[in-house]
Amino acid sequence: MKNKAWLLSWVLLSPLVMADEPQTYHYGMPLDVAEVLSTSVPQGCQVVETSMIYKDSKGETHTLTYLRHGEDCPY
């Protein structure tokens, strides 16, 4: 009986524990960003992959990766 209860609780809670797979942004991709939770700003002046964690209009959290210049670039 304990095993059944443990298995049932694992099945019910597993969607809450699983991490959101990051999406890679591509030009023209529709985004539903209601609130930005965090962004990472790279150092230097090269174009590197960085990420943004945000909530959509339904309150679900997502991670988006994209390319950008570091913060030390003059342009």
Q: Provide the structure class.
A: alpha+beta
CATH fold node name: Spermidine Synthase, Chain: A, domain 2
What's the level 1 CATH class? Mainly Beta
Compressed to H and E, one letter per element, the order equals: HEEEE
- CATH A-level architecture: Roll
* Unreliable segments of 5+ consecutive residues: 13-19
Helical residues, percent: 10-25%
Distance between the termini: 64 Å
- Give the domain tally: 1
Number of helices: 1
Radius of gyration: 18 Å
Instruction: Please indicate the percent range of residues in DSSP E strands (runs of 2 or more).
Output: 25-35%
Quaternary structure of the protein: single chain
Largest sheet: 4 strands, mixed
Task: Write a compact overview of the structure shown.
With 75 residues, this protein is of the alpha+beta class.
